Amino acid sequence: MFPVDLPALQESELVSSAQIYLSSLDGRPHHECYQSSSKPQVKVAITAGNVRQLQLFEDDQPPCAVLALHPPEDQNQVLALYVQDRWWPLDDVLRTSSQSRSGLVQVCSIMERVVVFLLSQVVERPLLGEVSFALHPRTESCKVLWRDNQAVGFYSVKPKGSLCDGWSGCCYLLPVLDTLLVRRSSRRRGLGLQILQDFCASFSSEEFLGVAAPLSASMAAVCRKFLQQQLELRERLYEVEAPGGWSQRRNIWLNIQLGRYSPHSRGEETRPASTDTVD
Question: By its UniProt entry, which InterPro entries does this protein fall under (predicted)?
Fold first, then answer.
């Protein structure tokens, strides 16, 4: 079994286990090493200098972090995570042995939230060490896409009526697909379309649905293909800015027809929230 399949941890157990292990590192023998099973094999000494805490959530009160092992020359490279009292290779944390984890599965446990964190912050990081996505809140509504016993993507939603932020008191006026990612190794297989279809089906009773603005070029391409197939959704799917009032909505299909998502019609196209998916 893999970490996500083991008996569910409470968030407090994950944190306390990490803190106990971290405080014990100085007293451990320096010859203790971790050796990766993937090629090329990497051997790293498990010392306080090679272990760091990764904050999991946007809201860090109470703090929640997982321990990551990195090579001494590159703190941004994660080799393994300390979970359930042992070090797990990064790839194993993103795997499952459960047949019930197939397709899009709602995130419920703390380990499933660790999977979302790894996908958004670690596994698919762009060049130069920059992060595409902001950290998610600990209560974010997310689904992980499982395929062939591996986590290959996820998406998150801001439900209608949920708070837009922690200070204004404004709430979303419609469900909004906020973040979406498919791993590079699994792109061009229709998975972006599958996620968009699942989002729309999950809120089939809503008159209007949103996708967080601004759309990246890749997300606009997914929406184009999706709306070419789903004619009945052309009047329902909008690019929105929070909280999603009519002055903050732009019909995606209309914008596609007007060429507003073409590279020549816009400047900066990247956004932490709105996807780096290529379908």
Answer: FAM169
